[in-house]
């Protein structure tokens, strides 16, 4: 004690306690600071060490990007080869090798899976070249798209097997690039052919197709037959019935095309909302506009619009209304008036297709029979004609098609 007192020259001994505190507290504080600093340094070192170790682990996890890409590409190629090797044996029968493709491809349009071309192929029976529509899967397709494309080919193998539906001629699924060949329909899109009838009527007198009342009913009947086949045989709906999706041969046989919505239904049992949203409103049954359950009777409604298109030689439906104005009008029981060139019987058929309640619309066998009956009494000499000219931009506006 005295020693301590002696250390501090100025302090009195009765202040010993205080003096002790003054010394001990800094010592403790100093000591704990040192400990703290040591702990901090130790921790930092440990973290640094961990940090130093960490990249090693990361590097093992993540190979360098170039290496990884190469591996991915290789495993993708492997995946593709495995997918194609494991495909259904039923594909083999349809295989058409690239050697059988003759001449140049002629670009037509872009499609869902890639570009669409007109092509010539050597036929199976060796009888020479036939024209075909060539639809290939685009080059950068991933494994998922390849699988979907194989489904798409299979859908054509099963479903495109009726006189009123574009036929599958063959495909290539053995190796990339994948493609299908579909029947080439000489007259092209029915809507354009109908328009040409107007133009020729108005201008040159040079007739491309001779469309009489009788042939009009025949066209409608063929379409109804195709739809009957889709619903009864395959339980799918077409989803986009319109003159723009019907192809016509010069001999006036017609084929249903534009089957991508039908493919969705085939695969998933329902319409994909993305693709369904692209169908112009003026062709849609009310239950489709308000997203109620859809049946084949939704196609029946569109078929009524299609009848209107044929008899008016491709006029836009509801020309005086905007697409979004239609639904409330239909709800209040408004329907398109009878086109001037339509017979009463045909207009009756349209109105049956436009029944608000789906189950009150006729079924396909009904429609086929009725069209057959109309056909047997129809004029087969006088050509259908419509005086008005048609402007493409006005059409697009009025039809709500873009
Ligand atoms: C790809 O397949 C080859 C043999 O076919 C094999 O050697 C290679 O390891 C495979 N690559 C990957 C990434 O699976
Ligand atoms: C390919 O063309 C040849 C004629 O050069 C023909 O004999 C063969 O049947 C064709 N193959 C297919 C799958 O169409
Ligand atoms: C259409 O009919 C006219 C006669 O009215 C005929 O000269 C022409 O060849 C026919 N065209 C076709 C494609 O049948
Ligand atoms: C189609 O409707 C008629 C009545 O309009 C009915 O007699 C017939 O059985 C129906 N056919 C099918 C396949 O549902
Ligand atoms: C269609 O209507 C036009 C008038 O727009 C008329 O000249 C023509 O004869 C009609 N055609 C038929 C087949 O009814």
List keywords for this structure.
402 residues; disordered N terminus; Kinase-like_dom_sf; Prot_kinase_dom; transmembrane; elongated; 3 domains; alpha+beta; 7 strands; Phosphorylase Kinase, domain 1; ATP-binding; single chain; binds 2-acetamido-2-deoxy-beta-D-glucopyranose; 5-stranded antiparallel sheet; Transferase(Phosphotransferase), domain 1; two-stranded antiparallel sheet; 49% helix
Describe the protein's topology:
Blueprint: H1 2-7, H2 16-61, H3 65-85, E1 101-110, E2 115-122, E3 129-136, H4 143-159, E4 168-172, E5 179-183, H5 190-202, H6 213-234, E6 246-248, E7 254-256, H7 260-268, H8 273-276, H9 286-289, H10 296-311, H11 323-331, H12 344-353, H13 364-376, H14 392-399
Antiparallel strand pairs: 1-2, 2-3, 3-5, 4-5, 6-7
The protein binds 2-acetamido-2-deoxy-beta-D-glucopyranose (5 copies).
């Amino acid at each position: 004690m005295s020693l301590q007192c002696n250390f501090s020259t100025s302090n009195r001994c009765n202040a010993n306690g205080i003096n002790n505190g003054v010394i001990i507290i800094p010592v403790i504080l100093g000591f704990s600071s040192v400990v703290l600093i040591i702990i901090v340094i130790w921790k930092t070192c440990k973290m640094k060490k961990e940090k130093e170790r960490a990249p090693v682990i990361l590097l093992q996890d993540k190979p360098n990007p170039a290496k990884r890409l190469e591996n991915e590409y290789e495993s993708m190629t492997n995946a593709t080869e495995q997918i194609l090797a494991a495909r259904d044996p039923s594909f083999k029968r349809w295989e058409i090798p690239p050697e059988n493709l003759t001449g140049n491809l002629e670009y037509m349009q872009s499609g869902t899976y890639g570009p669409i071309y007109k092509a010539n192929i050597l036929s199976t029976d060796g009888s020479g070249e036939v024209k075909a529509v060539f639809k290939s899967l685009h080059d950068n397709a991933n494994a998922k798209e390849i699988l979907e494309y194989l489904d798409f080919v299979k859908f054509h193998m099963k479903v495109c097997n009726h006189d009123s539906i574009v036929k599958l001629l063959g495909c290539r699924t053995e190796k990339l690039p994948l493609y299908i060949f579909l029947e080439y329909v000489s007259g092209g899109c029915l809507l354009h052919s109908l328009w040409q009838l107007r133009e020729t009527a108005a201008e040159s007198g040079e007739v491309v197709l001779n469309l009489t009342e009788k042939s009009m009913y025949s066209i409608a009947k063929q379409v109804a037959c195709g739809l009957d086949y889709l619903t009864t045989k395959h339980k799918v709906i077409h989803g986009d019935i319109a003159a723009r999706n019907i192809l016509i041969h010069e001999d006036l046989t017609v084929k249903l095309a534009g089957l991508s919505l039908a493919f969705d239904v085939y695969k998933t049992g329902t319409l994909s909302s993305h693709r369904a949203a692209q169908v112009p409103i003026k062709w849609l049954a009310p239950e489709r506009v308000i997203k109620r359950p859809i049946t084949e009777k939704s196609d029946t409604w569109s078929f009524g619009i299609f009848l209107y298109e044929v008899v008016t030689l491709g006029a836009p439906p509801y020309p005086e209304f905007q697409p979004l104005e239609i639904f409330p009008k239909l709800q209040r029981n408004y329907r398109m008036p009878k086109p001037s060139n339509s017979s009463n019987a045909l207009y009756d058929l349209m109105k049956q297709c436009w029944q608000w309640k789906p189950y009150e619309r006729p079924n396909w066998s009904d429609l086929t029979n009725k069209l057959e009956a109309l056909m047997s009494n129809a004029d087969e000499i006088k050509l259908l004609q419509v005086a008005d000219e048609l402007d493409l931009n006005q059409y697009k506006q009025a039809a709500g098609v873009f």
